Amino acid sequence: MERQLTTSIQAELPVPEQAAEPPRRRARRSVQEQADRGILSTADRRRPQVRIVGTILSVALGVCLVAVGLLPLLWLLKSAITPTQDTLAHPLALFPGGAAWSNLARAWNDVQIGKYFFNTIWMAAGEWAVQLLVATTGGFALSVLKPRYGRIISGLVLATLFVPAVVLLVPLYLTVLHPPLIGHSLINTFWAVWLPAGASAFNVLLVMRFFDSLPKEVFEAAKTDGAGTFRLFWSVVLPMSKPILGVVSVFAINAAWADFLWPNLVLKDIGIQPLSVRLPQIQSSTDLGVYLAALTIATLIPVVIFLIFQRTFLRGGGLGGAVKG
Amino acid sequence: MSVHTSARSQSGTARLRIGRRHNPVTWVQRGGLTTLVFLLPLLIIFGVFSWTPIVEAVVMSFQKTNLVTAPVFVGWDNFVAVFRDPVFWIAVRNTGYFAGLALLFGYPIPLVAAVLMSEVKRMKGFFSVLAYLPVVIPPVVSVLLWKIFYDASPRGVFNTILGWVGIPPQPWIQDAATAMPSLVLEATWAGAGGTIIIYLAALTSVSPDLYDAAEVDGASLWGKIWHVTLPQLRGILFITLILQIIATAQVFLQPFLFTGGGPVDSTTTILLLIYQYAFTQSLGGAYGEATALSLMLAAFLAVLSIAYFRLTARWSDN
Predict the structure, then answer these.
(1) What is the ipTM of this complex?
(2) Domains within chain B, CATH numbers bracketed
(3) Which of B49, B189, B305 sits opposite A196 (nearest CB)?
């Protein structure tokens, strides 16, 4: 499993040479490669029988994908701006009694979704920063500086990938309750979610693989020009690593936005809770229309991020999810 | 090795230092300290929040811990207590049921969808986006939205749709018999997109030459799927199967948010039980039992994965 995973990670990775190429050209070329042929040959496609069945199947596929992938989201959007009594009486009717845009404002202000929205952003930003710091400095030390004890540390990092997260749940909770050296509990502070997020073996391995593929000559040239280790890291390695930093960032922000179990445990104070923790709690006490508006607001950012960074998600997204699972 | 290369690249003075490489001053001069500074964030974060908790989990499973008095070693007591808990056996059965249903619903659908999608000439990008959309909706929002869809009254979203085709309203998550399949349905909807994307990527790497060759041998459409496509995807199909089992064995969000384990424990899963042992009011603070159960789950999954990869490796050789 280990070997299979790492090879597929390598395949998914944007290597530096490709990164220099304009992304659009790359995409078009790969589409052409796919278009060469699949299971059906060009001769197959000309046969009337195949054409008719194929058209029916592709229309059916399109209808299914729209129904499954898009309609629930559209229903959410529609219901967010529909008066509660209409949604309750005719859940599938389209605005029988007009729209209620006020749901959105009421959710943002009265239910204070605005506050929880910014809590979520703050939580995601901190997790992103910690993950990026740990992965880049650690990856740089392990794959560029290569200390003799580096192999042991890489091995220990890799090993954590095979420990299910649930094993860590209780001891991690007790660590956050009584952290070493600090002397006071981290519960109900953002540090309780930020710091454990940094221990992501997946990120470190991704960054290490990328750093390994950078040309060694550049490092030698930088050293000859008198660049110190910090200069090498900050002005040479990091600027060359933008593609992989982008991948890690998108995954980090998305994972933070999706996380529920851990923040639900350590952020008990309502004032600093993110949306994922707060939304289930307000369900019973909130007007349905306003509640659906709140759900819509919580969905907006991840969907927009996805639509902007489609390629990152569709090339490596499945893999990231698979490894976490 | 690094000592040799650096010595070769530098002048003769460096070569003299080899004999004294354990001297702290030369270690610092060679950048040993700088390397350690770069490693520090990783060592601290992994040390405190990953490596130590993993070791602690093993220790705690043999201890009685209540945060007030010092922990006491109790041998295998925690494990025995878990095995004697009737809810444990219910949770094992429910988790198995969830995993089995998830395989039934969730394993073939992404494969069929991906094969069809890969044969569509136009709108492939649009179809991929549609398939992946449920994955990017925050999981909590998905569950809460489906909880509204699952409204058991005749005016619920799904019951209205069923009404159009003449099927009577279903109780969905309100009834012990239909609760678990309802949870699996939502989990499948939320997760299928990721697997579809993996299969689509794997399908593009199937060499067109193989299809050409199969046609020369007179293979039909089904023949090509059976003898070329599926064997070429075999490796990735093996991996997604075991990854899906590992993931569904740890299902938490759906039972926790949909039903809280009810009705009458029909959706209590192993992870929910671990959570209840450790953190809920009635049982709360049974940290020993919680870690013991989590270790048993981890050990079971590890043994299962190793056995699975041994077995599939043998199949792949033939």
Answers:
(1) 0.85
(2) 78-317 (1.10.3720.10)
(3) B49
